[in-house]
Amino acid sequence: MTSNIRVCIYPKDVQRITGKTYRQARLYLHKIKTSLNKEPHQLLSIEEFCDYSGLQLKHVLRCIIG
């Protein structure tokens, strides 16, 4: 059986990854959404976050999961 890995990234995840405050993390995700021409109701995937931030997916997943 496979483990459940989330597809979306949330401000709390960005806060944990970058060490920013919750508000800064929320604003950073908003900046990414604006850059990708996403609407406010649309979610941001972990892959999109990694592409924008330049971080490797395996490092991000390690911070989010463990």
Main beta sheet: strand number and arrangement? none
Q: Approximately what portion of the residues adopt beta-strand conformation? A: under 5%
Order of helices and strands: HHHH
Radius of gyration: 12 Å
**Assembly of the depicted chains:** single chain
Poorly predicted ranges (pLDDT <50, ≥5 residues)?
none
Percent helix range: 55-70%
How would you describe this protein?
The protein has 66 residues and is mostly helical. The chain has one domain (11-65). Helices cover 59% and strands 0% of the residues. The protein is built from 4 helices and no strands. It has helices at residues 11-18, 22-35, 46-53, 57-65. The protein is globular and about 30 Å long. The chain starts with 10 loop residues before the first helix and ends with a helix. The mean pLDDT is 92.
Throw out a few tags for this protein.
66 residues, mainly alpha, 4 helices
Present the secondary structure layout.
Layout (H helix, E strand, L loop, with lengths): L10 H8 L3 H14 L10 H8 L3 H9 L1
Short description:
By secondary structure, this protein is mostly helical. Helix content is about 60%, strand content about 0%.
